[in-house]
Amino acid sequence: MAYSLKVCHLYGDLMNTYGDLGNILVLKYLANKMGVELTSEVISLDQKFDPDKYDIVVFGGGQDFEQSIISKDIQSKKQALTDFIEDNGSVVAICGGYQLLGHYYIGANGEKLMGIGALDHYTDKQKDHRFIGNVVIENEETGEKYHGFENHQGITFLGKGERPLGKVLEGHGNNGQDKTEGAIYKNVYCTYFHGPILARNNDIAKHVLVNALKRKYPDADLEPQEELKVGATF
Ligand code: GLN
């Protein structure tokens, strides 16, 4: 194939509670349709994250226990992950992964788990409550609608340079207050949507792949890839 992309499945062995691995399968499937070879590897505890090695990072959701372990380990990867993001690397971060890319997450037991602050959001706790259910949002820049399912106790508030992935039409989203769901920063897509969100929302997968291809192959003519119709046609 003419193009290739490499995915880092960050803490893929610990943060995969809702079948988030499915997102990588979807990326691979769509990449192949685009004539792009896509491979992935898990980078987990005590392993180095090399920002020059990857085009896309997928960071899944998880429970507070796993997050408390990762909160410590990820500090050693903080600079490399921040460099990757600032250098326009593509990231898909879900739930617990989304929370740990920000400044901190307050767990259900009140413990403050530090994130890496690569993005400017923070996540507070709800009082004995979780947001659970279907969510529908609209990306106000593209008009695309995204569908997902949320299950989180954390409530996230966006910071500098971040815009929401979408406006909440149904469900709770980031915090149940400001009608925002998820975050976009540079080529980073964050969301509370569970499981293989990219299977239900091929448009997001396409943005991630096209952004990664444009970064890796700045001189290539990617028009055929961008023209690819995703969604029901598959
Ligand atoms: N443990 C976090 C919370 O409850 C994240 C949950 C998740 O990844 N779905 O908010």
Total strands: the figure is: 14
- Relative strand content: 25-35%
Q: What is the CATH topology?
A: Rossmann fold
Fraction in helix:
25-40%
Number of helices: 7
Strand order of the largest sheet: 2-1-3-4-14-13
Radius of gyration: 17 Å
Average per-residue pLDDT, rounded, comes to 93
CATH architecture: 3-Layer(aba) Sandwich
Q: At the first level of CATH, what is the class? A: Alpha Beta
Number of domains: 1
Q: What is the assigned CATH homologous superfamily?
A: Class I glutamine amidotransferase (GATase) domain
Give the biggest beta sheet. 6 strands, mixed
Overall, the morphology is globular
Instruction: State the secondary-structure class.
Output: alpha/beta
Uncertain regions spanning at least 5 consecutive residues? none
Ions, cofactors and other bound molecules: glutamine
Distance between the termini: 20 Å
What order do the SSEs take from the amino end to the carboxyl end, as H and E? Answer: EHEEHHEHEEEEEEEEEEHHH
Oligomer: single chain
Binding site for substrate: 130
Active site: 95 (nucleophile), 194
EC number: 6.3.5.13, 3.5.1.2
GO biological process, one term: cell wall organization
